[in-house]
Amino acid sequence: MTLVGAREGAMSGIRRAVAAAMARDLPAFVLPGPSVARAMGLDLSGSHLRLVGTPRHANLLIVVGPLPPGLRDAAAVTYAQIPRPRAILALGVGDIAPLPDADVSAPLTQAGLHSGLADLRRVIAAGAFRADSGEFNAPALEVRVEYTCPMHPEIVRDAPGDCPKCGMTLVPRETASDGHGGHGGHDMPPEDRSNPADHAHAGHAEDAGGAGAYTCPMHPEVVSDAPGKCPKCGMFLVKAEEGESHGHGHGHGSEAHGAHGHGDHGGHGKQQDHSGHDGHDGHAGHGGHSEAAIDGIEPHFMSMVEMTEGQPRSSDGLQMDWIEVPFGPFFPGLPAGLRLTLTLDGDTVAGSEVRSLVGRAELVDGPQMRVADFVERLAAMMPLSPVAYRTLACAAIEEAASVDPGHDARRGRAAAVERERIASHLNWLAEFGLQSGFLWLAARAGALQLAVQGADVAGIAAQAGAIRRLTRRVQAAPLMRMRLRRIARIGKDTPASGPVDRARGGGSDARTGDPTLKDLGFETRVRNGGDALARLRLRCDEIAQSLDVIAAAGRIAVPQVPDVDRVSGEGAARIETPRGAAQLRVKLTDGRVVEADLDTPSDVNIALVETVTAQQELGDALAAVASLDLSPWEVRG
Length: 637
Fold this sequence. Notes:
The chain is α/β, with parallel strands linked by helices. The chain is built from 18 helices and 20 strands.
């Protein structure tokens, strides 16, 4: 037996011993993430695995459940980063392309995990090395050639040809294959595009002196009628006369003289005295550059002071070059499937963009669905809180069909949702502990989550003491207070849902007024402050309250699909999921679901990312996003 990702070399001698040792110690990277695996009931820590936070430190890639299409390219890139020998264990997964075929596949159960690992260890011990190890190329990392116009860089084609604007021959350039989604719109007039600076016309620097013209300090051939960024290097454009003062006149056709991103060297500042250079009148356009050759310094060099001139000032008054840094979709401590891009001004966040790579699919698969299939589909779409959404679907269908589940069923359902709330909040605590460096919290919260999420009333009662001790310890921890206090504050005027709202003194809770929960002693919990610490403490409060509700209910019952026969009608239901209020509207025709519409708390709270990250240091910004407890599976696609 051999691995798809075996390391090149003959399997003999000492390599057999190395392979046997590697089979015993398997550092693993989990997709979509450990939080999803725990939510599906998998105890990875109890399987003699060593979970790692980066693929570069792994030899095993574990794929848990079907991979959403939006995560598949990222999964292939992750696998490509794992050093050889590397293996794939697929749990409850069918097709995983563009990943190679799994070395071992097993059911998505704890028993399946154990048996799959046992098989995988035998495969690694027998075939970690082979002479004909094949290559793996992630499609997203492949480089392809496209063609563009030197004078009009906005013109891009897949094949050689001539520029439709100036007739020049297009020249080739390399680009990443995943960034090419067609070039429709490249030929749009500048006035129809959102950023006129992206359509600067190279080679027209002679017009730079016109009123209102902007140019790039590094690429003077780039000229625009409006401020913006250079399409070549991303620098902010400056007034044309300022570009002239930087010493980039038009006497030389070289492109920015190759000066890119170097430090500030004395002797090349624009304040340098060139009064002694009388013999260089032909270079008057380069008044900011010394013509003397200096070892180690490129001729026509530009300093950082000049490069950042005209850019916005940071909060500390400095002018710095801004960079965009992506995080996710498999970044430890952030929700799996979330792609967060931060624009950094030094180590401070100047802007942010966030989106879900999971993207919620259509609720109704086809023109109509059987009620049972619809309920199962909605629950499967929400792997982080399937019980809550199953309960929501059943309640909406019962409303449409005028079906009463009964007093005992409602109490059992309420307890089932509260059990999932405990497990979800513990899962969040585990991920938050991992990101914040509190490894004791990550380990303890993760273990307790696995202990309660499938437990009955007696099982939860047995774990209640340990859970309460953990929440008290978390709330009293001085380092936790120091780490989270006063970061990521959210005001009361900003829309928010669930614990995020209640942690700022808001009272939105779909459980309020529910007669079943009122009989079980429920009261809305709130915290003031609106920061990350308040959100953590509120979730701890809710865990304790959910324990009380379950004890009062005396039973836990996951809802069964109602029998609606051939009823037609419309219904709606609202439920408080672990992340906030979700509302579902359904339409039945002859006992089948034909229409459905869903509002989720993550649809509301994902809009808060820009608010909680603005002007935060990088570490605080990441903690702020984590404190929102977003579920990418809930976000509209």
